[in-house]
Design the sequence.
């Protein structure tokens, strides 16, 4: 199954604009907008490749999404 990370922005943030603060990164399935933890995310939110999950260059990460993701990927 294909996955990608999708941003959740800080409350009151304008969303996907240059410099918008990302509150947390969630994992979604197949270009979806519902995070694996159940949170509904903005369809226009920034995305990142799933292989960046857990890397020092990207974060913070939703722990619930991480647990579900690790159960689905080999």
Sequence:
């Amino acid at each position: 199954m294909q996955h990608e990370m999708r941003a959740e922005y800080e409350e009151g943030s304008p969303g996907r604009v240059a410099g918008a603060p990302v509150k947390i990164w969630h994992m979604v399935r197949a270009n979806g907008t519902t995070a694996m933890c159940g949170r509904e995310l903005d369809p226009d939110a920034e995305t990142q490749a799933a292989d960046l999950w857990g890397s020092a260059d990207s974060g913070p990460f939703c722990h619930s999404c991480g647990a579900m993701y690790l159960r689905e990927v080999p």
Summary: The beta strands are 3-9, 22-29, 47-49.
